[in-house]
């Protein structure tokens, strides 16, 4: 995979450094010093901001990747960067007005179970503004295949900033008001760093090439049409996974939102490699689609899906094999242990998302992107219906099941459209072999715990991890289930001897 592999490795290393910081924050600060309600407040504020920017950016993040190849000419972009800043600003102003106008019914919805969120309802706006431009600037860097520094800003810089904010609040240096303001400042600082980095690499250019725009009216028309579709599509795809937080907050309270947030954090580790792989693969995918190279598009999708299923699958197994140990070392772990099977279900959702989300990018970059809108709306509708139906009866597990079931239906639809319209598929025989291997290791772990129980939780986790994960990975290595991963590991370990 060449540049994809190199950049992905660097990006993944940076991401896991952020995970380490997040681990310290989550396991030794949040659960020790903050109540579940306070954790829930921080989570729902960020989720609300994420939902906000998904609309406000007006599809700009996807448009940057898809249309940058059409605008670039050597080192010039004909004013493309300028438009990537202007369009989200217009979107932010429009959505801010709507957010203000809907304040009464939304606050009433949350007021009974989560009055604390109502108190900070309007603080979503500054958090969303800075998060919006952090995202836009990072995507501009991704289009240049510069993912490491922006990834470091998001995964490390933001996490360090949030850790500092949590600690200052935990030791009462900051009040609750000051803590919420500090969250905004963290994203503001991240935005500033990304802006400086793009200036450093020569990406900053606010000069608009009006002649180019006049000569390429069809391109501009396609850009605007594509963006219009993506507004609703992006809303739907972001709304689906964040809906659970809002429904839990409204129907169960911020305490349960906080517990669900910890479960989500643990499960999200499964999809971390996907972030690095797709960040660097997406520009190449957009280029192959532009060139109408169906074979290259299929190969790239299969390689990404194959590698992500293998890596994400073993991360999933590592989490589940050690789940009891995780709750054992977690401060106040008995409070959060009720989310054990929530983590299992959410981790499966993240594995599915990690493996096949590259297909969503392929559909968005193709001329059939309108189908993405329809499927995203169906995803959102199913998520709303399932959350509303399952949370009252199953609680947090209902929210987790709604995520998994919605994603299954969504990806079946996306892959089906790609197969019929573009004759491209992300599947390979190696993926089936990987899936069988993962199921076998999962089943062996269950049998081990059932028939060979070990009272010492540390010894049990270490032995099962060493035997099952080590044996499974060795088998995957010998079978060369991922040629790319095999070659990379050989170059790292074998070449040194």
Give the number of DSSP strands: 0
Strand content: under 5%
Q: Class by helix and strand content?
A: mainly alpha
Kindly give the count of domains: 2
Helical residues, percent: over 70%
Individual helix count: 22
Compute the CA-based radius of gyration.
23 Å
In short:
Helices cover 84% and strands 0% of the residues. By secondary structure, the chain is an all-alpha fold.
What does this entry look like structurally?
By secondary structure, the chain is mainly α. The chain is 84% helix and 0% strand. The chain has 22 helices and no strands. It has helices at 3-33, 36-56, 60-71, 80-101, 103-111, 115-119, 124-143, 148-170, 176-200, 210-215, 217-251, 254-268, 272-290, 294-321, 323-329, 333-336, 340-365, 370-394, 396-421, 429-451, 457-479, 483-494. Helix 14 packs antiparallel against helix 21.
Task: List strands and helices in order, with pairings.
Elements: H1 3-33, H2 36-56, H3 60-71, H4 80-101, H5 103-111, H6 115-119, H7 124-143, H8 148-170, H9 176-200, H10 210-215, H11 217-251, H12 254-268, H13 272-290, H14 294-321, H15 323-329, H16 333-336, H17 340-365, H18 370-394, H19 396-421, H20 429-451, H21 457-479, H22 483-494
Helix pairs in contact: 1-8, 1-13, 2-4, 2-7, 2-11, 2-12, 3-4, 3-7, 3-11, 3-13, 4-7, 7-9, 8-9, 11-12, 11-18, 11-19, 12-17, 13-14, 13-17, 14-17, 14-20, 14-21, 17-19, 18-19, 20-21
